[in-house]
Design a protein that fits this description.
Layout (H helix, E strand, L loop, with lengths): L1 H9 L1 H35 L10 E2 L8 H6 L4 E2 L1 H39 L11 H15 L1
Helix pairs in contact: 2-4
Amino acid sequence: MLQEFKAFIAKGNVMDMAVGIIIGAAFTAIVKSLVGDIFNPLIALFTGGLDFSGWFYVLDGNSYASIEAAKEAGAPVFAVGTFIMAVINFFIIAFVVFMLVRTVNRIKEAAEREEAAATPEPEAPKGPSELDVLLEIRDALKDRG
């Protein structure tokens, strides 16, 4: 069983997956910072500082100054604004990831085109030309006749 486990871990797929998870975690931090520190302030600038995170309903009937105060009091909170902000952030993150993947794919395609252009085309196989074949056929017909 230990040998099987070693063989499993040594396979390229497992190592690729591990590297992907690590890079993905680091990439997540970058994208979250890009959205939170760059895009959200720009959106707030254009929307006059509109922030949905303060939109909430307390389900116990009491009134609280903020969602944090309601949560500290242990009140059940229906946080509509937090959900809306999460959806908006999702779409921003999805768009940023789309743009990054698109850029990487274009760079990759350009590199593949350059590589294909640099690779010489294989030479045509050496052999008799069309004229040589026709002359052979003519001579063979002469000999028969």
